Amino acid sequence: MARNIVEFRNLKTYFYTEEGVVKAVNDVSFSIREGETVCVVGESGCGKSVTALSLMRLIQSPPGKIVGGEIIFDGRDILKLSDAEMRRIRGNEIGMIFQEPMTSLNPVLTIGDQLMEPLMLHKHMTKKEAWNKAIELIKQVGIPRAEQIMTSYPHELSGGMRQRIMIAMAISCDPKLLIADEPTTALDVTIQAQILDLLRRLKEEKKMALMLITHDLGIVAEMADYVVVMYAGKVIEEAPVRELFKNPKHPYTRGLLKAKPVIGRRQERLYTIPGQVPNPIDLGDFCYFSDRCEYTMDVCRKKMPPFVADENGHKVACWLYEGEWKK
Amino acid sequence: MSEPLIEVKNLKKYFPIRGGVLQRTIGYVKAVDGVSFTINKGETLSLVGESGCGKSTVGRTIIRLYDKTDGDVLFKGIPIHSLKKSELRKLRPKMQMVFQDPFSSLNPRLRIGDAVGEALLDHGLVSKNELRDRVIEALEMCGLASYHIDRYPHEFSGGQRQRIGIARALILDPEFIVLDEPVSSLDVSIQAQIINLLMDLQQQKGLTYLFISHDLSVVEHISTRVAVMYLGNIVEMASRDELFDHPLHPYTQALLSAVPIPDPDLKRERIILEGDIPSPANPPKGCKFHTRCPFAKDICKEQVPEFRDVGGGHYVACHLV
Amino acid sequence: MTQFIIRRLLQSIPTLIGASIIIFLIFALAPGDYVTRQFENPKMTPERMEQLRALYGLDKPLPERYLRWAGNMLRGEMGDSLMFKKPVISVINDFIWNSFLLGVAIMFFEWLIASIIGIYSAVRQYSVFDTIATLIIFMLYSLPSFFLGLVLLKFFAVDLRWFPVGGMITTGSNYTGWAYIMDVAKHMVLPVATLTLISVGGLSRYFRANMLEVIKQDYIRTARAKGLKERTVIFKHALRNALLPLITLFTLEIPSLFAGAMITERIYNWPGIGKVVLQAIYVRDYPLFLGYTMLITVLTILANILADVLYGIADPRVRLK
Amino acid sequence: MERPTPTLDYRRKNKKRGGTSLWQDAFRRFIKNKYAILGLVILTFMILFAFIGPYFSPHQDVPDVTKANQPPSKEHWLGTDNLGRDVLLRLMLAGRISLTVGIAATLILLLIGVSLGAISGYYGGWVDVIIMRIADIIYAMPGLPILIVMGAIMSDLKIPPAHRIYYVMFILGIISWVGVARLVRSQILSLKEQEFMLATEVLGLRDSKKIIKHLFPNVLPTVIVAGTLGVASSIISESALSFLGLGVVPPTPSWGYMLSAANNMIDFAKRPWLWIPPGVAIMLTVLAINFVGDALRDAFDPRQKI
């Protein structure tokens, strides 16, 4: 078994807002192995993006703050590194791409300038070397006329092209881990297919791990080796991808799978999860899904369920499986 | 076959591009470039396509939020675009719209009760003392509580706001509602709630929907018939089952194969289209899809394919079918 | 680009005509003219007054006077200053460069100080520096320039005698070379300080607001995610974007270099155009005032066009057509 | 539906039934702002000082040459002027004028600016072109010189001193509406793009309703902020004009006019009590208004915190 490249251990990232403390990431632990694709899935506000930004130490402070836990990356605790050491990891050992390709590139700098920056910084390339490498990267992400693109500005490119450039930039220093935060949410479905295809290909070529954050279970099924499901700042379930889709355990995961209409699988009515995600401010110490769950028991409203693995390594945080732990 | 409620005949909507020293019109963005279809009473016709294909413009032009460039829209036989302003105003309650963005579709400084009830009052459809009851009725029908009436939009989540938007349209007792991407900004669990609500209301009230969306799986769930748009034209239109089971146009096929399916064991042949969607200001000649079509032939580059019935109400515009 | 400039120049013609009519009317409709003002005394006969009016062309009907004046303006003839008894152009030329000297110094210090304070406050938002800077800035821009001018004059020139009380060169001196420059510089300190302090507040707030806005953007996060040094992030990625709107502001300040500061120049007895024009108003020297006002109006219009052109050059997203 | 959807409150803390409007939200943020409170305190003080203060003064605003030019003393806290009048009392009375002119001029500029901006933005087309052209024209002309010239013309027209104050308000209003008009116009243009404005069209609301219930309340915050800051700049402009002797003139003083005592070399150098207090009064008032205006902007638009 490959070794862990990243390990989140009891990560806590809170936001201190006017209305109260938002525990955006509330005691999250999971790991990503070398060369593996882990999908972190959940609805908006569940803390999936904040988890990724915590790993990059890009949480804006104030109001955000990492208040506890460890993030072990390649044997080092990220949270204990100096700013300078952290900068050597960002863009070098960990690359990241974001949801909004339209706003993620600097509008006043050329594509070439932005692509060459990390190469000259981390790989100490000369301008000439960086230029050649950047052209190679542009070709690698499937954009023709690379020389012309180098001198273009972001607004001259389409959304799909910009996302390809973001990918090229993120992988330019051959990182061990690529974080992709909803990389296709802002794109059309035919472009999404191109980008996912590209990510899959690059991951194989570069042998890097991929942390893919998404809300789309279809993308999860297509891309993931391993899945982490988050709800209201907590990991509520994690399992290898086949296991998770074949045998989802947490009522929330099950609900999500049933609530999404699927092409070619026509049904009279959609299953719905009633209610909505709880207000993240000042949540108590109980199962956060309890007020929407159809199996809620008394214990669910009183105590936080522990996160327990079964014999297949399928982990879930739900009181329904209390019986299984005792075995 | 039931009677048509909406008939759209060769509708065109061009937006001018200005330029030159005197800011004269130097070209047009052909957002909608000649589309024709009918919507029958009680059915849901879906318009599906990627960004810039003109689906929202069709929706807005049908209910005359935009003035047409050419063609005709008939609502129960009435040519919408020939009405005077006052006549149009009288007809407004019958044709409603639910918007995409639950955050910008409600006036932030208006109480929910006012937002939902004001049109009823303005059209003189209800007396002042009945108003509150009618508003509460509409809110409850959409899964909201009566005490929400005094609240403001920012006190609600996205899904609840979308319910308010639906209540606002519903209270006028419309016959036809344009649903412009009503669920695309919502999370999956909330999306399902809203879709079910829309379908329930349609059944109870016999509503007719034009459902505009880019999400094929939602479209498949909700539609009676589906029209696929590309760069201002409908390239394929058929009943839901026919379109999803036997897509004929290469673009429809590509779209369908591009949708990720939540089943890790499913291995599909995927058609990945090359390149980007061309600009609607300068669309390709001939078949507009030929620049990305994996099967394009010479004829596609020159001749515009005819939009024709290939049997059983399945329309397609492709030389290769 | 050329097309854009031509269009903007054409567009500014009506603006200029409108401005010239308004400016002309303001004076023409005023009862007291130069003749009444300067020569009114018991010895003056009405006949003699009329002769004088005819001499100065003040007896013609308004439209004719306007057209004659506007025609002269177009030819660059602004007429003669009544006060100085020589062409307006040469009066303006005599004094405007003194104002320009003051203006350039002020602009230099204003932008230097404002950029430092603004950027530093934004990068260290809510720090002690930010809080104190904000407070001081608020106080500065709440001060009327003439009050600050008077206070500085009283304290540093009258009481402490560090600087001369007014003028541009020490009376009776005939310094040359370096000594002359130092003498002028000494006279400049207080007026420059006054106007810099007054204007630095608003500008540094603007700098700060722009920086804060830019720092929030996604591309700054991208820059940080690349592992760039904070210095590179701020000065290469953020500052360039924050400076874009400031280009406009900077360009629009150019006319003020030539306009002079009426009140401050008066307080410090600086022989600039502002002081002279103020004097011209007191004695109703219309040709001088009209010439000056039109000059500044034209400069403002040109600066507006220049601002748009420079913005278009600096921001790759803007295409000037 | 399988089960009734539980109606959870998005904000659980909000227990009361009636909703919290954005106005209430803004108010809550406003009163939390320290600068805003400081500004309000100073402003209240200045208003009381100017409008109630004179009733507590033991002096009369009448010349008494025997007491001319006295420095500050126990009897005359801020000394006396060259006609022997109490400077402190004059300062209070001048405050009335300065504050009134500032507020009235702002109301005039808002009236012109908001209506022209709104018409321009709402109707568009040639109306918009014409109004914006006029705005361009006024914007292109140098403001202070025109203001001063208008002041001079007032003198030529022999307007009685008591009426000059109204003319000053009017002139200030007329030359400074452009900024507000442009602001309101751009705000309305962006509101028109919002889906809720499209919704008012789909709902078939009357134009009057669209404007009064939908556009106006959303433009109001901008207008309030612009208005507040407008008072500050009107006060400064008025004082500049009066300082030059071309604005409000005796017998009704304004702070700016009192400051013009500094034009006399002896008063300037030897009797600072004549001109420093009005300057400080202007500064404090303007500072307070700027604090309040800035806090209002933050309160109305928490995203744009600057």
TrEMBL record, chain A:
The ABC transporter domain is annotated at 6-257
Q: Does the entry feature the keyword Nucleotide-binding, yes or no? A: yes
The compartments listed are: Cell membrane
- Keywords assigned: ATP-binding, Cell membrane, Membrane, Nucleotide-binding, Transport
Molecular function via GO:
ATP binding; ATP hydrolysis activity
**Entry's Pfam families?**
ABC_tran, oligo_HPY
GO BP? peptide transport
Q: Which PANTHER family match?
A: DIPEPTIDE TRANSPORT ATP-BINDING PROTEIN DPPD, OLIGOPEPTIDE TRANSPORT ATP-BINDING PROTEIN APPD
Q: What is this protein called?
A: Peptide/nickel transport system ATP-binding protein
Automatic annotation (TrEMBL), chain B:
Citing just one GO molecular function, the answer is: ATP hydrolysis activity
Is this entry keyworded Protease? no
The record's annotation in SUPFAM superfamilies points to: P-loop containing nucleoside triphosphate hydrolases (SSF52540)
The biological process GO terms on file are:
peptide transport; transmembrane transport
User: What InterPro entries is this protein classified in?
Assistant: AAA+_ATPase, ABC_transp_ATP-bind, ABC_transporter-like_ATP-bd, ABC_transporter-like_CS, Oligopep_ABC_C, P-loop_NTPase
Keywords attached to this Swiss-Prot or TrEMBL record, sorted alphabetically, are: ATP-binding, Nucleotide-binding, Transport
Q: Where is the ABC transporter domain?
A: 6-256
For the keyword Transport, the answer is yes
State the family it belongs to: Belongs to the ABC transporter superfamily.
What's the protein name? Oligopeptide transport system ATP-binding protein
Taxonomic classification, please? Bacteria, Bacillati, Bacillota, Clostridia, Thermoanaerobacterales
UniProtKB/TrEMBL annotation, chain C:
| Entry membrane topology | Multi-pass membrane protein
Provide the primary localization: membrane
Q: Which residue spans adopt a coiled-coil conformation according to this UniProt entry? A: none
**What Pfam families does this protein's entry cite?**
BPD_transp_1 (PF00528), BPD_transp_1_N (PF19300)
TM annotation in the entry: 12-30, 95-120, 132-157, 188-207, 242-263, 289-314
Q: Report the residue ranges that make up the ABC transmembrane type-1 domain in this protein.
A: 96-307
- Oxidoreductase keyword on record: no
Record-level GO cellular component terms? plasma membrane
Where would you find this protein in the cell?
Answer: Cell membrane
Similarity comment: family membership: Belongs to the binding-protein-dependent transport system permease family.
Q: What is this protein called?
A: Peptide/nickel transport system permease protein
Provenance organism: Caldanaerobacter subterraneus
Automatic annotation (TrEMBL), chain D:
Q: Does the keyword Transport apply?
A: yes
Q: Which GO terms describe its cellular component?
A: plasma membrane
**Has UniProt tagged this entry with the keyword Cell membrane?**
yes
Membrane-spanning residues: 35-56, 97-122, 134-153, 165-184, 215-236, 273-296
| Keywords for the protein's UniProt record, in alphabetical order | Cell membrane, Membrane, Transmembrane, Transmembrane helix, Transport
Q: Which residues form the ABC transmembrane type-1 domain?
A: 95-293
Q: Which domain of life is it from?
A: Bacteria
Q: What is its main location?
A: membrane
One of the protein's GO biological processes: transmembrane transport
Cell compartment(s), UniProt: Cell membrane
Lipid bilayer topology: Multi-pass membrane protein
Q: Per the similarity annotation, which family is this?
A: Belongs to the binding-protein-dependent transport system permease family.
The protein, known as: Peptide/nickel transport system permease protein
What species was this sequence derived from?
Caldanaerobacter subterraneus
